[in-house]
């Protein structure tokens, strides 16, 4: 009764701690974790020298012209990228979603349409599985340096992402109207137009606009591998250690992201 | 132990929660506060507990004015005051043993509090506090696995473990069923009697106040309506205390609301 | 309410979007670019065909394995650092240390979060030299911003009663936080950390593009030298690695957060 009571969780906690340390220690070595490096005089001088040139930001007319052009390029890449992504996503989502399955309605699954659905799902997985930056790098090899690679990379990854989310949205909305139409013998497109879209269109639009906002950020990042726009300009300035230019570009980027946020929020309010 | 003189608490909007309260409570007294909702019971307990600074009058707790103390001294005064709340303020994902040991955080140095999070340092003490409440089996369970009544008894165990010189309980039993309410009230009184500490509890259940406590104070509209030994409180006085209380019944009905909060634990 | 105006406004917005798309297409000169791309369609197909036969020679696989572990290390250490940094900044950002502290912490978090990992990486490469440590730092900096904001929100939404009660019982501020509020927020903190780790493993694979080690450095190299077979292996390895991390993170989530 009065035996010493031990915490039953202690053994598990100790094991987890030891295991965690056993995993963490080698990983720290592999990651070459060494904060002292940051304070090595050489590195400090390089970074310090670079950061010191951040002020004042570059404001000469030639550069500002370049900057404006790059900003417009970035916006254009995001916009066309999303437009092409829609062309990929809409058919894929329609093939992939279960909401328009006639087989599910009468309980007799048709092997062909099920196989098609599975293929569509597999394709979306592959498209969005590889990060857009990797696609961009691949497309730069094909189309050469410039916006085309960025547009293609965005179209492919965002096509996959949009297709997946569209299919999910279509499956999570109220299916009764669509089911009723299908049961009454309507075709799949009829059921989509008259049964599903009226219910789901707001959410679909809203998600698309949100993705456009993400695409603006992504297109800047893709510039770093040569896919045009603001990112490519920033990469060049950084490589040449031109702090003033880097600073101007960074500020432009932050403003652009904020503006995209605001525009996207406004657009989403409009579709609501 | 406690003396209040011409005590007043006014809110920013000018409403007076307490008005001209004079009160003196000796060490070892067991006092019940009764009165309709909005009478100022909670405010009075908060003032005595050194949690709320009165806007008028004087307050002395354990021989000192809490608001004249330095931060550290005020902290140590609070560590000598144990409090119980209507909804036990215990994080749902905490284990019972940790929740009970938290009672002595005011006395422990920081290193000890931190070490005890890694491995509970006083398992025997926590167990001893749970023993009279019949909850020793739940020592290492998580609080979200307990019922509302059990959780309130864990809060009581935390209080017992803290071993305060003054116990303030604000509606400690109003979210419990009658049998459990009586057992918790009895446990509070037993502990106070055994250790000779002062106990002040506000209660909705007048019968509990009259049967378990030695002294009963009736509060109404922020003033003391009566203050006498429990044996001398007449039914007429109680009726007058609650009579025409604008929301007496409504408040009683609205009271169970915290109960859901008590059992939700998520 | 505005039922008559809505269709017109919708029409205007649709037209605006259409104009924006067309203007973008013409601005980027995409038609010529894609046409040139399809001119070399045969080349493109050959390129893709070479992708279909991944390099599986043991020597190269060993190298990929090494890169994968390095990427794993970057993502895990980076996320852990970010969890620590996020907690340290979330405490002031939730307003616990007064107004000025809150404003300063929020500004820091916003700055850290707005700058993408890749941009941080170009700076950390200067600060720490080429290699995995630069990638770790870049991930940690951006993720600190993301997690810090989420952590602060969790703190603000946590019930205040338990901590207030402990303070009322004479407990010190730190102890009251540890016993009163930490149990309420820690599961959320862990869940957010795991979620970011899943995202960071993908990001860690990419940071190598700017010289921050891991699989990305190898992929950049392979693609620069037109070694498509090796690039294909590396891309498959990235996918596999992120699936493994998803599984580990899911298991940890079930055991640490849900249980």
Automatic annotation (TrEMBL), chain A:
Single GO biological process annotation from the record? transmembrane transport
Choose one Gene Ontology CC annotation of this protein and give it.
plasma membrane
Q: Supply the InterPro entries for this chain.
A: MetI-like, MetI-like_sf
Q: How does it sit in the membrane?
A: Multi-pass membrane protein
Q: Which UniProt keywords apply?
A: Cell membrane, Membrane, Transmembrane, Transmembrane helix, Transport
Q: Superkingdom of this entry's organism?
A: Bacteria
Tell me the SUPFAM superfamilies matching this sequence. MetI-like (SSF161098)
Show where the ABC transmembrane type-1 domain sits: 71-264
Q: Where in the cell is it found?
A: Cell membrane
Pfam families documented for this protein? BPD_transp_1 (PF00528)
Give the transmembrane region(s). Answer: 12-28, 75-97, 209-234, 246-267
Q: State the family it belongs to.
A: Belongs to the binding-protein-dependent transport system permease family.
Name of the protein in its database record: ABC transporter permease
TrEMBL record, chain B:
Give the InterPro entries listed for this entry: AAA+_ATPase (IPR003593), ABC_transporter-like_ATP-bd (IPR003439), ABC_transporter-like_CS (IPR017871), ABC_transpr_PhnC (IPR012693), MetN_ABC_transporter-like (IPR050086), P-loop_NTPase (IPR027417)
Q: What residues form the membrane-spanning segments? A: none
Q: Which CDD domains match?
A: ABC_PhnC_transporter
What Gene Ontology cellular-component terms does the record carry?
membrane
- Upper taxonomic classification of the species? Bacteria, Pseudomonadati, Pseudomonadota, Betaproteobacteria, Rhodocyclales
- GO MF assignments: ABC-type phosphonate transporter activity; ATP binding; ATP hydrolysis activity
Superkingdom of the source?
Answer: Bacteria
**Name the UniProt record assigns to this protein:** Phosphonate ABC transporter ATP-binding protein
Annotated keywords:
ATP-binding, Cell membrane, Membrane, Nucleotide-binding, Translocase, Transport
Locate the ABC transporter domain: which residues?
2-246
Q: Spell out the SUPFAM superfamilies in the cross-references.
A: P-loop containing nucleoside triphosphate hydrolases
Q: Does the keyword Cell membrane apply?
A: yes
Q: Per the UniProt entry, what species is this protein from, by scientific name?
A: Denitromonas iodatirespirans
Automatic annotation (TrEMBL), chain C:
- So where does this one cross the membrane? 72-97, 118-144, 203-223, 229-252
Q: Is the keyword Metal-binding assigned to this protein? A: no
Residues of the ABC transmembrane type-1 domain: 68-249
Gene3D superfamilies per record = MetI-like (1.10.3720.10)
Pfam families tied to this protein: BPD_transp_1
What is its subcellular localisation?
Answer: Cell membrane
Q: Name one GO cellular component term.
A: plasma membrane
Coiled-coil regions, chain positions = none
Q: What is this entry's stated membrane topology?
A: Multi-pass membrane protein
InterPro entries named among the record's database cross-references: MetI-like (IPR000515), MetI-like_sf (IPR035906), PhnE/PtxC (IPR005769)
Keywords assigned by UniProt?
Cell membrane, Membrane, Transmembrane, Transmembrane helix, Transport
As one GO molecular function, the record gives: ABC-type phosphonate transporter activity
> What PROSITE patterns is this protein classified in?
ABC_TM1
Similarity comment text for this entry? Belongs to the binding-protein-dependent transport system permease family.
Task: Kindly provide the name given to this protein in its UniProt entry.
Answer: Phosphonate ABC transporter, permease protein PhnE
Q: Which organism is it from?
A: Denitromonas iodatirespirans
Which classification does the entry list for the species? Answer: Bacteria, Pseudomonadati, Pseudomonadota, Betaproteobacteria, Rhodocyclales
